[in-house]
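Researcher: I'd like a candidate sequence for this fold, 493 residues long. If you have to choose between options at a position, lean toward the conservative one.
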């Protein structure tokens, strides 16, 4: 491999100048990796198009000495050729460098390239879409272990490994029992933008929305930066959703068909679970999912559920009822729910599709469920608004099936606090201030009564309401609703 030593020379790298929105804790972790006195291996995990690559490039900028991105579905030799190309592109000698036939030689070549730098200032090696680089039986992970253990760990360097396949990254790298065992020094699980980050991002693009309208956009496409990039100023939310999701050339018109195959092997299992959960607002247990999807009992079904949850498409919740040990799974990926509810059947397409659909009963049902999902993703903001951010608590849901003599009840969110209080949270999405009727107020009282009887709790029950546009107080809400939150509180950092 000495041939590589004679052709490498120092390269100048440009500074990054883009503006990074949010990601404060993630930036802190990455900057800390640059400040320590030892080598760092940082794993950055997050779903497709959530902004992992942008985050790494923005924070590290000219500190990156080498970066490569795996090619989806490419064989080993094609991945190695791309790896070597990224090196030769930087050295720019005009010479033809022989392509190694295995990953061990490819990483030896990388070491030869990196040894040209004195590394007085901590530098970065960035390996993106690791699961695509590490094709089955290719020897990539062994070679990466060799690179780290024999060279990088002794140098003033940060090795960043990044991947969209969350479950693969956790199994094959984070929990690896081979050469990478316990080598990960820092981990980042990159989540979609919160409501506050989404607002900041859109404002930076000169798109200023009332918060109820922004929430409706979020309910349709979520907080994925790549999706939000399609939003155009000068158009209403309705027009943007029409163009992005229903027009023939809209980015999200057919995104669903590409999304799961890009992340999971045997993705048909994952899609069948997503479809089953899209039809059940109350959620499903593992057994109910298996019965609905006709998936086989055993490890494959459990793995698919775990992979979907680790990737952020579904969430699991325990019921408050301590007798029910089994988790409930719920679809919490905004785009998947929206696509399956409105886009897939192609009944409504083109200009005006969303304007029409948003006047239907289906919209009302969907918006209620989607707004609940937003609230469940912003529990820290809810606790802060309630003044209990410093109080230990557990969040859960509650569902009791009806009988011949008594109606069933569902509680959207319970916050069980250590100060002997339980917030029973009712969530409502409306385009105007919500007003309690006599019948609705009575149903809330019944809900509290049944919950207390079933759970036998002796804690104080505080009925709390979160609405998109506020609560119009009247005689029915007086003495019943003790805490009221609007959508504005969900936008707090």
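Model: Candidate sequence:
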């Amino acid at each position: 491999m000495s041939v590589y030593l004679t052709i490498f020379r120092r390269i100048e790298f440009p500074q990054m100048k883009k503006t990074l929105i949010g990601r404060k804790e993630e930036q802190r972790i990455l900057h800390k990796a640059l400040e320590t006195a030892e080598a760092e291996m940082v794993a950055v995990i997050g779903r497709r198009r959530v902004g992992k690559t942008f985050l790494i490039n923005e924070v590290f900028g000219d500190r990156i000495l080498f970066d490569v991105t795996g090619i989806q579905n490419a064989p080993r030799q094609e991945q190695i050729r791309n790896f070597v190309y990224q090196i030769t592109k930087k050295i720019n000698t005009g010479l033809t460098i022989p392509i190694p036939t295995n990953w061990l030689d490819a990483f030896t070549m990388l070491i030869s390239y990196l040894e040209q730098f004195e590394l007085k200032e901590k530098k970065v090696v960035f390996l993106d879409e690791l699961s695509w680089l590490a094709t089955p039986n290719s020897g990539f992970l062994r070679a990466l272990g060799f690179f780290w253990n024999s060279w990088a760990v002794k140098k003033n360097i940060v090795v960043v490994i990044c991947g969209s396949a969350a479950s693969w990254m956790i199994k094959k790298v984070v929990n690896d029992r081979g050469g990478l065992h316990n080598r990960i020094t820092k981990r980042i699980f990159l989540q979609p933008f919160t409501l506050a980050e989404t607002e900041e991002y859109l404002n930076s693009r000169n798109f200023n929305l009332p918060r109820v309208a922004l929430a409706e956009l979020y309910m349709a496409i979520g907080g994925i930066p790549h999706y939000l990039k399609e939003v155009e100023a000068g158009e209403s939310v309705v027009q943007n959703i029409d163009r992005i999701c229903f027009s023939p050339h809209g980015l999200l018109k057919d995104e669903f068909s590409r999304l799961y195959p890009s992340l999971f092997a045997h993705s048909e299992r994952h899609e069948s679970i997503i479809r089953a959960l899209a039809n059940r607002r109350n959620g499903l247990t593992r057994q109910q999912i298996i019965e609905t999807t006709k998936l086989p009992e055993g490890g494959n079904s459990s793995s698919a559920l775990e992979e979907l949850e680790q990737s952020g498409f579904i969430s699991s919740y325990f019921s408050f009822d301590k007798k029910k040990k089994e988790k409930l799974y719920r679809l919490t990926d905004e785009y998947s729910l929206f696509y399956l509810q409105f886009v897939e059947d192609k009944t409504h397409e083109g200009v005006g599709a969303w304007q029409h659909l948003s006047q239907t009963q289906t919209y009302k049902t969907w918006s209620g469920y989607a707004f609940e999902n937003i609230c469940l993703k912003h529990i820290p903001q809810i606790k802060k608004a309630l003044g209990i951010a410093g109080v230990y608590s557990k969040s859960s849901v509650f569902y009791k099936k009806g009988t011949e003599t008594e109606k069933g009840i569902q509680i959207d969110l319970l916050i069980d606090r250590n100060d002997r209080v339980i917030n029973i949270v009712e969530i409502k999405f409306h385009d105007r201030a919500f007003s309690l009727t006599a019948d609705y107020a009575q149903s809330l009282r019944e809900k509290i009564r049944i919950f207390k009887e079933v759970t036998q709790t002796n804690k104080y029950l505080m009925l709390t309401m979160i609405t998109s546009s506020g609560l119009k107080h009247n005689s029915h809400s007086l003495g019943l609703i003790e805490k009221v939150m609007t959508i504005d509180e969900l936008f707090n950092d």
